[in-house]
Amino acid sequence: MDKQHFDQLVKGVREMKRHMAGKRVRGVRTTELPAPDVRTIREAAKISQSQFAKLIGVNLRTLQNWEQQRTQPTGPARALLKIVASNPKAIEALHG
Predict the structure, then answer these.
(1) 84 exposed, middle or buried (CB, 10 Å; 0-12, 13-18, 19+)?
(2) What is the pLDDT of residues 3-43, one digit of tens each?
(3) How many Å from the N-terminal Cα to the C-terminal Cα in the chain?
(4) CA within 20 to 30 Å of 42's CA: 30, 52, 60, 71, which one?
(5) 38-94 — its CATH code?
(6) What is the rounded CA–CA span in Å between residue 5 and residue 39?
(7) How far, in Å, CA of 59 to CA of 12, rounded?
(8) Largest Cα–Cα distance in the chain?
C-alpha cells in the first residue's frame, strides 16, 4: 500500500471515530426519526401491556421501558409499531 492510500485510510478511520462519537463529519447526513409513542399506539389498539408485549414478541419490561421513554424500539419492532399505529386493528392479525 502506498503512502497516499494509507493516509486516506487513516483519515477515514479518524472520521469514523468522530462520527461514532456523535460529532459532525463532512459529507455525512443523518436523519433523526421521532420515536414512536408506544403507549398511545398500544392504547389505540385497546390492549393491555402484557398482551401487547406478547403479541409483538418483546419482554413486558422492554415494552414498559419504551412506554416510559427510557429506551426506544428499533428495527423490526419499530416497523411493527408503525403498522399498528396506522391501523390499530392490525394487531388482530397477530392473534392467529
Answers:
(1) buried
(2) 999 999 999 889 888 888 878 888 777 776 788 999 999 99
(3) 58
(4) 30
(5) 1.10.260.40
(6) 51
(7) 39
(8) 64
User: Span 63-67, mean pLDDT?
Assistant: 96
Q: How many residues does the chain have?
A: 96
Domain boundaries, the chain: 1-30, 38-94
Q: What one-character-per-residue DSSP string does 37-72 give?
A: -HHHHHHHTT--HHHHHHHHT--HHHHHHHHTTSS-
Q: Which residue has the cell 463529519?
A: 25
Give the Cα separation of 63 and 35 in Å (integer).
13
Contact 33, 44 (CB under 8 A): no
Separation CA 96–CA 93 (nearest Å): 6
Give residue-wise pLDDT tens across range 74-88: 889 999 999 999 998
What pLDDT shows up at residue 24? 83
Buried b or exposed e, range 40-67, using 16+ CB within 10 angstroms: ebbeebebebeebbebbebeeebbbbbb
